[in-house]
Amino acid sequence: MQKEIRTVCYDDDLHLEAYRFQGIVQPFPDHFHDYYVIGFMEAGTRCLSCKNKEYMIGQGNILLFNPNDNHSCVQCDGGTLDYRGLNIPKETMLSLTEEIIRQRILFGFSENVIKNDELNLYLRSLHQMIMDGGEEFEKEEMFLLLITLLIEHYGQPFENCIPECSKEIEKTCPL
Description:
This protein has helices at residues 90-101, 117-132, 136-154, 164-172; strands at 5-11, 16-24, 28-31, 36-43, 46-50, 53-57, 61-65, 71-75, 81-88, 107-109, 113-115, 155-157.
């Protein structure tokens, strides 16, 4: 039986968490996060459900989750999961968008699963820099480039990412 390895690293420079799951076979039941998740599949095949859509994900896929996107996944090939991810707090994303587009607003991802070799290369490089404790300037430069490209290609107003049922709840039960 292969050993599961879970590695987590908080980056004080970028104000985010990087992590890697290796050899994972456990299913992840339906859940959501209150932060952004940008991740990529190194190996393994999983059946992902996100916002009531089904995906078959594997090596090279990039996963983009907005805060509160419900999702779950299970192994579907008898193999194990090797996945790298970044958890980005909303406050960090607000600061990034302010620097990139000169507006302090949240954006949302229009897609949850993408295949983009260029973005995968940047994401993998950034993740490795964080895990290795790389230089602050290099990490910041790579992070800004990654988020800029994600906004350009997959960004949309955050309110477009909120499911209709959540919008109705907010109308009837404002915070």
